[in-house]
Queue: 2 jobs
Job 1
Amino acid sequence: MQPHAVLGTNSATRRVHRGIGADLRGWVACMSKGGRPSKGPRERVVTRLPQPLADVVTQAKDESPYENMSDFLVAIVAEHFDRPEFKPKPNRNRQEELPLKTA
């Protein structure tokens, strides 16, 4: 039995799926030309903090010039190990929103 027979597809639906795949590949290639530059290879490091410590870290991140926790923690670790070349640039837009009057 052909694999496509089990999946309930035929040659027409396979052509459609190939067309969609080709369209997605083109879209992904287009998207990869823009956006932020790569930060290079990264390693995921995971830990669990006691809740009171996590609250302190989250508050410090909220008061920092970093938009996300990952960049904030990289900045702390880079500073601790005296590796300024790895410290990310601040990325939080600190402009305050102007109050809008409603009519």
Job 2
Amino acid sequence: MPVRVPIYRCGARVWSMCPAPKGERLAVRMTTRQKHDIEWAEEVLGRNVTEFSVQALTERASEVLTDRHVFGVSQTQWGQFVGQLEQPLAVSVSTGPRCDGEG
């Protein structure tokens, strides 16, 4: 059955429908209370523990990684940033010794 898997292009997440084999496992330890809460939440949503956990972990991972790649700026700040990128580079000429030994 096809599942939605994220494909990342230029820092933007794009969802694609394609079959994704699930061959990896992740074992975790938790308190009895944590396990109870997870099982209760998955029951409310009508999912099994694996589906609930994988979705929750994947969404949180995406949030963490997005915070590392996307920086929020105002329109004014963005305009200033782009303006700086469009300025010619200031080049300084070295007055040290020349490579050919002259001067």
